[in-house]
Amino acid sequence: MLGLALAQRSFSTARFVLPSLPLVSRWSTRRYNSTNAGEASGQIEARPPAGASSTSALDPSQLPLPNTPDISQGPFREETYAASYVPGRSIHLPFLHPKTHAIPVATIHFRSYHTELLELFTHFASHAATALGIPISRVVKLPTQRSLWTVPRSPFVHKKSQENFERKVHKRLIKAWDADDDVVERWVMYLKQHGLGGVGMRIVRWRRTPLGIGRRRLEGVRTEVEGRQAEIRKMGENIIKTELSQ
């Protein structure tokens, strides 16, 4: 049961002035799996795989870039588009970074009684993951949980009428792959910090460690225990020497 108080917030897109910019969609930006060469031409190029050489020389102190990329001047990289100020970009679908190794790192489940709040926050979470360079899936709709209650209207023993109550819990899911633990932690903390009232989250993460981590931890524990025993033994010897000297 989601016992979350709903925050009264008003959202408006009237302040966004949309110039003649390309409509960034999931399918137009995912050039790596496009089956139509005509669709891929003139679109944003996907991010190169991990380990590939990068010629990027973007200075964080100079961001955002002063010039907005124009699709009429030819294709450009997603990195350049993300580093530029594009009014109204947040209302479009986020760019989906391609998976490099398809190693799952986290799944986030969203729950809410209101579909409007759920769609808004999942859209926000997807854009946050895109900004951090985390390959994620599309927002997956899970089956809606429906609960029904039938209670008597009257507190008397002989009930003459009943009243039905219904509650629907809407669910969404986002999967993440091939991201560092620190990046995923930053993404999760950002979502918690800017959580939306009326939307609950359940986060499942997978952390991977190199081989031999158990042996190294055991050796560390043994060293710590042996060090404490040596300190206790030395302290006892000092106490004995002090007592005998008196």
From TrEMBL:
InterPro entries given in the database record: Ribosomal_uS10, Ribosomal_uS10_dom, Ribosomal_uS10_dom_sf
Annotated spans, Disordered: 35-74
Pfam families tied to this protein: Ribosomal_S10
SUPFAM superfamilies: Ribosomal protein S10
GO biological process: translation
Single GO term (MF): structural constituent of ribosome
Residues in Small ribosomal subunit protein uS10 domain copies: 107-204
One GO CC term, this protein: ribonucleoprotein complex
Keyword Cell membrane: no
Top-level taxonomic group: Eukaryota
Ranges that cross the membrane: none
HAMAP family: Ribosomal_uS10
Job of this protein: Involved in mitochondrial genome encoded proteins translation. Involved in the binding of tRNA to the ribosomes.
Family under the similarity heading: Belongs to the universal ribosomal protein uS10 family.
Subunit structure: Part of the mitochondrial small ribosomal subunit.
Protein's name in the database: Small ribosomal subunit protein uS10m
Native species: Amanita muscaria (strain Koide BX008)
